[in-house]
Specification:
three-stranded antiparallel β-sheet
Length: about 160
């Protein structure tokens, strides 16, 4: 008996949800191991990722923006920033265009520590992505972006 498109779609949907969940758990575990080795909290690692991504977009993050991104108070964000600065992962610097504004930067020492830990994972990830065509990678990127947006929307709705 041939499977219907609806049946195949439903099965694939279940498989994809499970795979996304497994990826989330594995990613969280990797983050926990890195944070634990660095004496950091999980929130600290999330903060580092926000700062790194903002900086790579050419839009360095302020403490207030970090607090918003993390969903915590500005006081709690200051504690996170202080811990990351003491550990050598972040540094505060006055904004070039507005000296009253303080922006956060991923420190070179922190970058070196992250590269030592995450570099091998990056190479393993490259091995996986190298098995896909560019068109397939575009589909995967569109899927992951859509799933991330769906999760963010779900959380925002409470």
């Amino acid at each position: 008996m041939a499977e219907t498109d609806d049946g195949v779609r439903a099965q694939l949907r279940r498989e994809l949800v499970e795979l996304v969940q497994r990826l989330g758990v594995a990613s969280h575990h990797v983050g926990q191991v890195f944070a634990g080795r660095q004496g950091l909290h999980q929130t600290d690692l999330e903060a580092l990722l926000h700062v790194m991504h903002a900086e790579s977009r050419g839009d360095p993050m302020t403490a207030g923006a970090l607090a918003t991104a993390l969903g915590i108070s500005t006081g709690a964000a200051t504690g996170v920033i202080d811990r990351l600065e003491r550990a050598g992962h972040l540094r505060r610097r006055r904004a070039e265009h507005d000296r009253r504004k303080v922006v956060l930067h991923y420190d070179d020492a922190g970058r070196a520590v992250a590269e030592e830990f995450f570099g091998p994972l990056g190479r393993l990830s490259d091995e996986v992505t190298d098995t896909f065509t560019v068109d397939e990678l575009r589909v995967v990127a569109r899927f992951l972006d859509g799933m991330t947006t769906a999760m963010d929307t779900h959380v925002a709705r409470g």
